[in-house]
Structures are given as C-alpha cells and as structure tokens.
C-alpha cells in the first residue's frame, strides 16, 4: 500500500483464507489480488473504496462470495474473471462504470444482487457463458448493447412473477417469451419484438430512447397495454398493419413527440383513451377504426387522418388542438361525433360526410373553435341533415333543430326553416349578414344561438317565433333593423333581453307605432 493506506498495489499473503480491506482504501490497483487463494474478502464499515482496477481479483479460484461496498463506483476490465468458485456477488450501491468481461470464466456464479437503486451497466459481456445464472433487482437497471450475451434468469421485486428472464436485447420477459414486462436497454436505436410475444405490458418501453420498433413476421402480438411506449421521444413511425393486435390501451403512445406517422388496419382493433395524445409531430394516421376520448388531443401537426369504413365513434376531444388538420372525411359508418371532438382545430376548413350515413348523434359543440371551417358537405341520416353548411337534427317529436352552422362559411344570407335554433349554433359565425326565418317555422331561439355574429345585420321575427331566450344575440352589435311582427310590449322586451340593443329597437320602424303609444316598451 502507499503510506496513506489509500491504495492497494499487491497482496503478498501466503495461505490466507480471508482478508479485511481497511476503510481508508480508495483504490485497488491492477492485478492486486490476482491468483490469490482467498475464500472471502471483507470490507470495513464506512469503506471509502471507489475503484477496482483491471484484473484486480482475476483467478481468485477459491473466492466464494463478495459484497462490494456502497462506495464503489468503478470496476475495470475483467476485475473478477476466472473466479471459478465465486457463487454470489452483491452490489450495495450503484456502480457508475463497469468495464468489459467482469465475470468471464466465473462458471459457478449463481447470483448477482443489484443495489436498492437504479444503475446502468454499460459494458460488454456482463452476462456470458451461462453466468451469472440469476440476477436480483429491486429497481429498474439499464444494460447497454452487448452486455447480455445469453438469456439470464432474473428476480425483480416489483413484479409478482417468478419465471422472468432478460434477453440478449435486454427485454424482461416471462420464460415462455409471450409477455414483455419491461425494456432495460441503454442507448439502443431499435428493437425487434419476437413473434412469440402476445402482450406488451404497461410501461414496458416508457421513456426509452428507441428510434424504431420492428415486429417479427407472423407476430402473435394481441395487446399493447397502458403507457407501453409512452414518452418514447425518438420513435418516428409505427406500422402495425400486418399484426393481429386487438387492443391498444390508454396512454400507449402518449408524448411520443417525434412520432410522425401511424399505420393501423385491423378492423377489430380497439384503441383506448389518450393513446396518441401529445404526439406533437404526428402528421399522418392511416386506417384507424376506433377513435376514443383524447385519442389525438394535442397532435398539433396532424394533417391527414384516414378513418377506416366501419368506424362508429369519434370520442370526446379526440382531435382537440389538432391545429394543422385541414380536412377530414367521415365514413358513412360513423354513428356518434362526441362533445368537443374537433375543438380548436383552427385550420380545419372542410368536413366531408357520405351523402347517406349512419349518424345518430352530433353534439352542438363537436366543432367548437373550428374558426376556419367553411365547408360541410350535404348529407342525410335518419336523424340528421346537412344543407348549406348547416346541420339540422330531427328529434323524437319530429321537431327540426338547427344545431350548427359552419363558422367560416361563405354564405352571407341564410334562409332558416326549422323549429328550434339551438344555443351556440351560429357561435362566432363570421360571414352571416342576413338571417331570413321562414313563416310558420322557428318557434324558439335558445340562449347564445347567435353569439358574437359580428357581421349579422338583418333578421326577422315572424309571428310564429314565440320564445327568444336571453343573450340569444349576445354581442351581435351590427344588427340594424329587425323585422318584428309581434309588437307587444312583452315581446319587444324579450328581444331586448336577447341582446339586440335598445337604441336599435327605438330606431326601428317596426316598433315606431308602439313607441308612440307606449313608451314603456323601451324602458328598463
């Protein structure tokens, strides 16, 4: 040793069984204990040992067990190679640097016990030649490419499963290789999923740095569970068209921020909520059947979506904040377009429906915030009809409700012939200037029906229009002179409460006679 007793240079003991390493030692030098006959090595408490150099314990052929202090951070090349009787090695603390061939020719090594914290094994041939036979973990530990040369049994405390292995691709699987529990690869670019795999467990690849996932031909993959690939921020494409996957669980690909395209095809594929949420660079989705809640929410680069015929449901906020989506085709099989399905799709200009379709439910706010929407193709189903970029609903009483008008449609004049104009149906409609309500048609205008129609100038109120809710014309400040057939005091007050300014009503010829005979008409 040196005089400070911080470095061990060599061991010159003869016929020793064990030795205690002083706590002052920081470094064990190259080949220091090589070829010794020691059976055990003990480290004093509060050891300061940080580095074990190349071949330090090579060919210690009687060494059976060793427990490395928590202080150890560096283990250099082949440090324990050739320890023929070594059965157990324990890391009490995480190692920062392990070099190649640590256990080569340790043919009887049965257990390597890892620390109660995560660490990275960045070396070649850590597991080789059937040694160690088992590794035990309490925390996820990452292994670099080439560190696992042979399939090795593992015990992982947080999995209730006894028969687990780590493959040469650092995948934690059951011994039958039908389920993937976790991916423990460090600095991998791509991974191949064996065809034997039926299920990828929740969080299995979460936060990995993979750029590509390859599925073997004739894959038996059936399900991808919750958050399995969440925040895999380097993956660019997903293609599962050739697979027989039946279900993709919630958050499965959430936050894969560099994912640009997804190809799906299976007609029985079920996709659960938030599956592709916040995939910011996702531009193209092909062949999707199931579109649940928040499915593509936050995918602000999404430009092209091919919804496969057979799809029945577009879920709540499924395309929320898809700012780049300009056009979408709705197959005739779709029955429900949910609340806020396309909320804030600011560049969405056209929605193409099949002329005859299966629509059973469109919510009033399905297209809320689609400020560029100018074109809705004409269509008809048992309950809905679209004409002149306006959607009507036929309720069970055979009443026709106007529920939505495209916010940026080019129409300046619209003839309305229905029973009810629903709330927010003309919300922020930019170009409408003249609403002509047919006689004997509309009986009710709901609150905020014409909210912020800033260019609306002309509207008529036929005698059949009996009820106008408060704020129906909120912020419609351009209305000039409504034509009002019912000049009763109560009716005029109702119109005023709907948002049409008192001064407008005073100036309007339609109420001039009423003003002369009863000035209270325009009083508060």
From TrEMBL:
InterPro entries: LRR_5, LRR_dom_sf, Surface_bspA-like. Pfam families: LRR_5. Coiled coil: none annotated. This is Surface antigen BspA-like.
